[in-house]
Queue: 3 jobs
Job 1
Amino acid sequence: MAYEERNIWASLIVGIVGTIVYTIILLQAAGGGPVSDVDWVPIMLWMIGASIVGAIVVSILWGIVAGIRHPDEVGTSDQRDRDIARMGNRVGESFLVIAGLGVIVLCMFEVDWFWIANTMYYGFAVSTIVGGIASVIAYRRGLV
């Protein structure tokens, strides 16, 4: 598995797990009441930080294991990797644009900050997940 593909997998795994964990913690904090009443800021900030650190740690550990197994492939990337990364970023960024437009609409209607922030948070999460899935598919099937 190429260096870039391992990093994409690490981000994808951590992105999915982080989003699920954030949602569970948020719902548990609501305790059956309205989720907009939850003190969401520390939960979101901790989850963003944990996801960033988690993706780095998973990527490093996976890289160490891969380096032990295949030392000749460590840190190498080629034009195909760059093309796949660009395509995955474009796919993911389209969801960021959609989330950004959603945030603008929510702001126009002066919706509670909880909904605005979570729209953007989940927009980032969906962007990472969908962009990662697109990149993994491109690694497996090739760019068309």
Job 2
Amino acid sequence: MPKDFPDPESLLPLQTATFQILVALADRDRHGYSIMQDIAERTDGKVRMSAATLYSSIRRMLEQGLVKELRESPDPDSNDERRRYYGVTDFGRSVAMAEARRLTNMLSQARETGLIPKKL
């Protein structure tokens, strides 16, 4: 990790919107509407993000170095110049992985105490 960036764990816990955006960008670069669609689909509609939430989160994430705006569309079939495409940075991926480990640990603790069944 470059010296310019803090320890990924120093940004935890992540806001739900931030984590969901990072997960949406984990497998491929996307434009804003595609990010919103991916989140809604992956969460069976339980998490629906407004455009205002998405773009204010992305603005903050750009400042933090978690995501980057792409100069060109990763989709050769797309010619809509209004669309802005985003990708996760190496630092953003490290932060997302740290948050996933944190959430996994919390789930393990809940299972160990019997709060939730061990086989869920």
Job 3
Amino acid sequence: MSIKKILITQPRPDSEKSPYFELARRYNITLEFQPFIRLEGIPAREFRKQKIEIQNYTGVIFTSRNAIDHFFRTCEEMKVSVSQDTKYFCITEAVALYLQKFILYRKRKVFYGADGTNKSMFDVINKHKGNEKFLYVCSENQQDNEIVNWLKANNCEYALAFMYRTQSNDVKELLTKTEYDVICFFTPSGVKSLFDNFPRYKQNGTVIGAFGNNTFKAAEDAGLKLEIKAPQPQTPSMVAALEQFLSGKKK
């Protein structure tokens, strides 16, 4: 099977220098970008029902830029002043650097894992867990169970703060009009969106890629066969995983 068209279920990158476009040129393939989900902020009046006093937490856990956006939006809506001593624990350096949009960035209060995995973030949190009360900012319908289970197992004082929710986008027309050789998913909600749009979806030879353990599980639980997985030791990003897959096909 030759690979001609790949669907990335995320927004198109802003920069033409994105490694996705370099990949497309190198292997002469067509890449299309279409988010399968959208995020909606949970309004402050609804968030209050969770009975979480944000200022009582000394450490905040972020796994995405969206989580950062919605955390500071919620604080603003609730007129909560975030202490300058608050520590931030992020999944990657890129997510950590995004905090500069909202705070004076100081390394002694912003921490991130070495390689973008949950495990490397846990290693960092582990050094501080005795002194901090953690707030894990996440989606109402898509929190990372591995993080929740780790916080529980390690006797951390924590709360889940649901500040946004994911909704499925309508992608029926896109997938009816075009046949893709590869579809790449990045969240369990993206997989759910596929079946919200096509409840009887059959893979029929389409290659499925997935990013992250929770997405692997969601895809496999839905009966999809996974051929492309990231992050893995040799393929830390979806681009790297696609590169490995395409180079294997070329040979």
